[in-house]
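User: Run a structure prediction on this.
Assistant: Running it now.
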Amino acid sequence: MCQLFIKADPELWRSKLRSARLRGFSTSVRLETIYWRLLQEIAARDGLSVNEILARLYDELLETQGEVENFASFLRVCCARYLMLQRDGDIPADPAQPIAALDAPAILAREKARLGGADGWTQPEAPPPYFSAGPGSPRVRPG
């Protein structure tokens, strides 16, 4: 299993620093190559450059949340969600289909229902069913 990951092109996890202009200020963002490639794909779907999608995401995050604590982490999560939403059929695999044309509220509602938990996002703290966790015992697979 691990060979699938460790024998991948090391360039994919190399960090790259890119300059961007966010809210009129020049800044830089450091992400691994694979995330830059995904951001390029996401941006291209709506006819944007990577810098344009960065500025849009930053602006909308700031407007919605009131602050931007860790923009690089937010971008990584955006990329992971993009792939998850494609896997689940909410974002078409066809790169010609713009993301801006999708029904975001419906997609978010389906995602929330899939993820479960009381608030729709948090999974309950419980060990997977194939683990046993008695008091003071380590989690082990049943024999």
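Confidence is low (pLDDT under 50) at residues 127-134, 137-143.
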